[in-house]
């Protein structure tokens, strides 16, 4: 079957191909190597029960979070306070959105990463050489009233459902940031205070079934640019996390979230916490939906290692920078390199901003 070339979105191309089109095929040295992936029935990453975080289990939960951030960079949470109906409604509306007719979906299309609401494909089609087997709707969500009017109006309940979901996940993010501050030995509101007006973005990732999943990625190995990510995935496996040089598959557990340390948390913690490489692989028979909430500083916030975590034995690993600078570098490199820390090392450039206290 010949490949239709005039489709902007993968969703409208994937069902008509028997083979992965050449622009999605990775070089042999950069393929998922699915046979080498480690599948652990349970416990691929720590599962932390947040019940009693503000009660009797406080110090135990803080210790668990701190250990997970140091050792794995990833953990799962249950009893997280986000109502199950918010979760199921969010997954339902995401599915409904990607099933809308092409002409309806395309109303939201843009390949400009600076747009605050946009439907797009792959990662950054303007800069990348090989495409990824993914479409995504990306939304800025905080402050809600600044962005909600830009969001899709179809399906008709989209804005209501997504706004409720964003509000609940923001509450969870703030609780986690407090806990992480404490786990680093900082004041519980330390991180909150570093984030300026705060930012919250969200992606709704749609990975169509793929005829040759061994040749391509949904997303290749990368770290997240933001502070922490709270990921919701449907029941189709696809997320893999790098541990000791091996890719570990993270099996979905319903009504839990996966939380990971992002690049800004690594910087702020002066390398105590690790922003770990992860990737999404695709499935031959099944579509997959994942919904990361990216909690971040506002663009003008100055990020750098916390003064309380810098001393003679632990010199500042990174220079201070405005979050906007890091964010732009992240999008412009098109996932061609796995992270962009090298441009922000304390030794690489003279700091242009005062130390963060
Ligand atoms: O689909 C997933 O499980 C991972 C998504 C992800 O890493 C991302 O959107 O940055």
Automatic annotation (TrEMBL):
Q: Name one GO biological process term.
A: defense response to oomycetes
> SUPFAM superfamilies of this UniProt entry?
Clavaminate synthase-like
Its required cofactor(s), as named, are: L-ascorbate
Per UniProt, residues of the Fe2OG dioxygenase domain are 197-297
Asked if the Swiss-Prot or TrEMBL record annotates the protein with the keyword 4Fe-4S, the reply is no
Which GO molecular function entries does the Swiss-Prot or TrEMBL record give? dioxygenase activity; metal ion binding; oxidoreductase activity, acting on paired donors, with incorporation or reduction of molecular oxygen
Which keywords appear in this protein's UniProt record, sorted alphabetically?
A: Dioxygenase, Iron, Metal-binding, Oxidoreductase
A UniProt-annotated Pfam family: DIOX_N
For whether the record's keyword set contains Coiled coil, the answer is no
State the reactions this protein catalyses.
salicylate + NADH + O2 + H(+) = 2,3-dihydroxybenzoate + NAD(+) + H2O
**Which PROSITE patterns would you find in this protein's record?**
FE2OG_OXY
Q: Which domain of life is it from?
A: Eukaryota
What family classification does the UniProt entry report for this protein?
Answer: Belongs to the iron/ascorbate-dependent oxidoreductase family.
UniProt-recorded name of the protein: Fe2OG dioxygenase domain-containing protein
């Amino acid at each position: 079957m010949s490949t239709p070339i005039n489709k902007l979105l993968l969703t409208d191309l994937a069902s008509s191909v028997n083979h992965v089109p050449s622009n999605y095929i990775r070089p042999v040295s950069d393929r998922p190597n699915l046979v080498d992936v480690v599948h652990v029935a349970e416990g691929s990453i720590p599962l932390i029960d947040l019940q009693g975080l503000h009660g009797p289990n406080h110090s135990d939960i803080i210790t668990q979070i701190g250990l997970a951030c140091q050792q794995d960079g990833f953990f799962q949470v249950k009893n997280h306070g986000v109502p199950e109906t918010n979760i199921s409604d969010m997954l339902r509306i995401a599915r409904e959105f990607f099933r809308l007719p092409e002409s309806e979906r395309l109303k939201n299309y843009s390949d400009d990463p600076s747009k605050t609401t946009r439907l797009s494909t792959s990662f950054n089609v303007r800069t990348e050489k090989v495409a990824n087997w993914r479409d995504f709707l990306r939304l800025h969500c905080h402050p809600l009233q600044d962005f909600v009017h830009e969001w899709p109006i179809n399906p008709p309940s989209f804005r209501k459902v997504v706004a409720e979901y964003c509000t609940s996940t923001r509450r969870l993010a703030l609780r986690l940031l407090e806990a992480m501050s404490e786990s680093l030995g900082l004041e519980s509101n330390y991180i909150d205070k570093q984030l300026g007006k705060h930012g919250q973005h969200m992606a709704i990732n749609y990975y169509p079934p793929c005829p040759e999943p061994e040749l391509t990625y949904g997303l290749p190995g990368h770290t997240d640019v933001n502070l922490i990510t709270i990921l919701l995935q449907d029941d189709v496996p696809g997320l893999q996390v790098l541990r000791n040089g091996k890719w570990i598959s993270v099996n979905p557990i319903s009504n839990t979230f996966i939380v990971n340390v992002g690049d800004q948390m690594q910087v702020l913690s002066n390398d105590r916490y690790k922003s770990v490489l992860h990737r999404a692989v695709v499935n031959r028979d099944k579509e997959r939906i994942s919904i990361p909430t990216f909690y971040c500083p506002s663009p003008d916030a100055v990020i750098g290692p916390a003064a309380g975590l810098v001393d003679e034995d632990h010199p500042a690993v990174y220079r201070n920078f405005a979050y906007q600078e890091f964010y732009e570098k992240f999008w412009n490199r098109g996932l061609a390199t796995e992270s962009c820390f090298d441009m922000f090392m304390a030794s690489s450039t003279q700091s242009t901003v005062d130390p963060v206290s």
